[in-house]
Structure formats: structure tokens, C-alpha cells
Amino acid sequence: MVLLQMFGGNPFGELILGFLVSFLVVAFGSYVGVLMALQSFFEESSWREVVENQSD
Do residues 30 and 24 touch, judged by C-beta distance below 8 A? Predict the structure, then answer.
């Protein structure tokens, strides 16, 4: 909470906080999207399982 008050006090802090939150949302969405694609197309839950099953 103190961090939000500290960054929210000035316009530059608000800009940084906005970019940080946006970046985290996009990164998390990309991660979830890759996991969903792995499960959908390969029926696996990690890249390691995909690679190990491809080499057999």
C-alpha cells in the first residue's frame, strides 16, 4: 500500500506503475496462453514433455 501511495503521488510514478501493471498482465496472459496451447495441441503440460515425447 505504501508503494502505491509513493508512486501515485507524482505523474511520473503513475506512468511507471501503469506500464508495470500492463507488462505484468500481458506477461501472465502470454504464459497462460502458451500453457493452454500446449494442452490443446500436444496434450502436454510443459515443453519438456513435448520434447521428450517427440524424440521417442
Answer: no
